[in-house]
Each structure stands twice: as C-alpha cells, then as structure tokens.
Amino acid sequence: LKSNPSNNEEKEAQTQLTKSDELQRLHSQALSAYEQEDYQTAISLLDEILAVCVWDAELRELRAECYIKEGEPSKAISDLKAAAKLKNDNTEAFYKISRIYYQLGDHELSLSEVRECLKLDQDHKQCFSLYKQVKKLNKQIESAEEFIREGRYEDAISKYESVMKTEPEVPVYATRAKERICHCLSKNQQATEAIKLCTEVLQLEPTNVNALKDRAEAYLLEDLYEE
Q: Which residues in 33-67 are b (16+ Cβ under 10 Å) and which e?
C-alpha cells in the first residue's frame, strides 16, 4: 500500500488482512481441537487452512498426527511426504513415514524411508534403531522367499518362524509368516499341519486368497474334496 496507494490496492490489502486474521483464528481452533483429542474437527479446520497455506510443513505434520490418531495411515503418509519435501532435513517426517509403513506390514517401503532419514543424519537414534529392526526382518523374509523358490520348504518354515520371533509386536508379520508357512507345509505334503495353520490365518483374514488356495491344496492331499 505504501508503494502504490490506490483504492484497488486498499481493498485487496484489507481482504488479505481479513483472510489472514480468519486463518489465524482457525489455526487456534485447530490446535485447541487437537489438544482436546477432537481429531475430526482439527482435520476439517486444517483442511480449510491448508487450502490457502499449501506450503506449510508444520500444518501438514499436525494434520498427519490427527490422521494417525483417527486410524487413517495412508492419508498421514501423504501429508508427511509433503512435509518431508517442504522442510529441509526433515528427519522426523521420514522416521514417521517409515514407522507407519512398518506397522502396515510394508517392510520394504519402511526400509527405503528410514534410509532417507539416515542419509540426512546418520546418528539419528530413532531412525538407526528402526533401521536395524527393519533390515533384519527384511533380510529374513527375503531369505525365506528364496528358500520357497528353491523348493527348500523346511528351511523356509524355519526362517518364517524367526520372522515371528524378530517382530512379535506387530500382528501383520505373524499373520503373513503363518500364511507362508501354511504354503510350505502344503507344498511339503504335510496336509494336517497346513490345514490347521491356514485355518488360523483365515480366522483372522477370512478373504485371504493365498491361505484359501493353500488350504484347498491340503484338503486335496487328504481326499477331502467337498472341503
């Protein structure tokens, strides 16, 4: 306004000031909703602010936290990926993305994201600790799958049993391991054990196609054609 005083500029300036006041008010409300654990309200307020302040990394990180609390990890990942690009050396965002992928059972993507964190700071304690865990798990799963390709089913079973010991806290890895052990048992003509284990998996995931197929193969070995 000082450089170019005119009615048009005055109106534009007043509009922008009003809008910025409104956004600050929404921001206060969003923080308040977050502190009160009303994450849905916080998300809708942050949606409004981020429609204008598209490049604000902190707001995206806050919305990601709300999405995590609301059990919407894929939306959280999207915001955290943006925050990782918008803020230099954002190790925290890479760490959180890696943790979410890990919890979802996607160990390969988890490993790739935690490596990005360590590229920025090789002494990052949380990232290094997560990296060691994911790398160990990843290696065991790759090794087990290699044994399956080679038809070494006993070795694969043993390796998948190690996977369950390496990660007892995140249920998805135990379920995947049991699914693959059932596959090995079925291929190894150990029908009774295969049926038992696949049934365990199917109680948790009734639509698990691999477990259904492997249990069907095991039923065939036992001449249980109806089943």
A: bbeeeebeebbebbeebbeeeeebbebbbbbbbbb
